[in-house]
Amino acid sequence: MTQAQLLSRQKVAVIGLGGIGGGMAGQLMLAGKHDVTICTRNPLDVMTFESGERAARLPLNTLADPAGASPVDWVILSTKAHDTGATAPWFARLCNSRTRVAVLQNGVEHEARVQPMCPTAEILPAIVYYNGERIRPDHFRMRRVTDYELAVPAGDLADAFSALLDGTEFRIFKSDDFKTMQWRKLLVNVVANPVTALTRQRLGVLHRDSIKELCLAVLDEAVEVGRAAGARFDENEAQRTLDTVLTYPGDAGTSMYFDCLASKPLEIEALTGAIVAAGKRFQVLTPLNSALLALLKAISDANENTVSSNVSV
Ligand SMILES: NC(=O)c1ccc[n+]([C@@H]2O[C@H](COP(=O)([O-])OP(=O)(O)OC[C@H]3O[C@@H](n4cnc5c(N)ncnc54)[C@H](OP(=O)(O)O)[C@@H]3O)[C@@H](O)[C@H]2O)c1
């Protein structure tokens, strides 16, 4: 290894080895440019990683106890948003004054969720556009679905993140209007996820006329809130979003649909909850989103209680 390669070699920690963390871990391991530690609740020595035509068995360095972690150059957080708080013990061990943090989660409040756990770190919010799936406990698949896999706000931190991922298959979009991109992704999420989770049906359910009407009304509220929050939406943003969602394969599920079927807690506060909270802040009424939030919170809380009552002590 040359001196330059040694100097650019970074210590990276990926927190959360699910669909998205698995995609990130697989790409970083395939590129082989950095020292990667996976922070997980369930240690795993080897993963099978599929991306496009490639499939590889990759050794992993996993840690299950934060006590064994030490400071790194980059933390990449890829848990569901509602699990963010539970990662505090990892952040306490992984961050020092030079650590940078990329947050690969849905929603719009990435910095607010993460900064309290690492007050001095620079935080890079990222919107994820790849499809990541943990097919089996040791088998992960990543699929490209659009022109780029990650979008981040343009700037020095985005450049550093791009350099970190150099040699991977990730295409990174550096946006000058990240807020609008974040809200556009949120718009898709606040119809596709709640409707599939509540109906326990895949995306094909959105093609029913009555559901289309409901989605449009939910989107109208969300668009008004987004505009108040500073997103620069098009005139016909709600209809445009619905038209986009209707192009998705009808037999595809959403993560909230799968979490609902698996009786897991739902990422509802970071999605619909973000619309309702911002609506209150900007005095925009959100009765439909509030109703969806109340229903899905009840399901999520019941699932959470089931998970905790299944834990043996
Ligand atoms: N999957 C996709 O295609 C996709 C696409 C776009 C955006 N997103 C967004 O990306 C984010 C990540 O989604 P995902 O699909 O990767 O979720 P996921 O498959 O549920 O994976 C999250 C992982 O985080 C782990 N975790 C939770 N708390 C932890 C803790 N305290 N310490 C260590 N690990 C912890 C979980 O571990 P356990 O296995 O032990 O529960 C799980 O493996 C979400 O915000 C999601 O909305 C996902």
Automatic annotation (TrEMBL):
Organism: Ferirhizobium litorale
Superkingdom classification of source: Bacteria
SUPFAM superfamilies found in the cross-reference section: 6-phosphogluconate dehydrogenase C-terminal domain-like, NAD(P)-binding Rossmann-fold domains
Ketopantoate reductase N-terminal domain: residues covered: 12-144
Keyword NADP applies: yes
Protein name per the record: 2-dehydropantoate 2-reductase
UniProt cross-references to Pfam families, sorted A to Z: ApbA, ApbA_C
Reactions catalysed, as given in the entry: (R)-pantoate + NADP(+) = 2-dehydropantoate + NADPH + H(+)
